[in-house]
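Changelog-adjacent note: as of this version, every example in the card shows the full chain rather than a window. The one below runs 191 residues end to end.
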Amino acid sequence: MAEVLTKTPHQTEGPFYPNEMPLDTDNDLVIINDSITPAVGSIVYLSGKITDTTGFPIGNALIEIWQVDNNGVYIHSKGGSRSKLDPNFQGYGKFLTDKKGRYSFRTIKPSIYSGRTPHIHVAVSVNGKRQLTTQCYIKGEPRNETDFILKKVKDPKARDSLIIPFREIPGSKLGETNAKFDIILGWTPHD
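Full-length structure tokens:
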């Protein structure tokens, strides 16, 4: 019998899912459209795969991410001071997984805002239906211990699945990091 993987826990969408979509919604949040000015912040390559609890990959799933810019401001109109908003940070992106369930984004390392630990919001939809909304966190970040939303995940194994290492890319002159966030849905393509 195959091992059953730990489902990625649901977490709140929060109040700052974009209320107006940016003109650019691709998987590169660092550069908007054909601009030459990148967002301020440490670049992160966030990737992973989406599977069901048996490890079966879920292709053609829509994965969305949204997060604060380097100043702690969301693109949502009430997500922080508009005067501090980085106009070069996309703030939201989406991607369709390939047939092996893989996805990738280029973004910035999340920063803190209003008492929360740094995090990236993640939503997954399959066949047009939202299957999961969650958040991922930086392993080793001290604020994780006191974050009121992360603390709501009582199962230690499930909570640990949300906390991922951000590893420096060897030889990167810009201090870029890789972060791998695999998502396990309690939904199968056969449902």
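Structural remarks: Strands lie at 43-52, 62-66, 92-96, 102-108, 119-126, 129-138, 163-164, 166-168, 177-180, 183-185.
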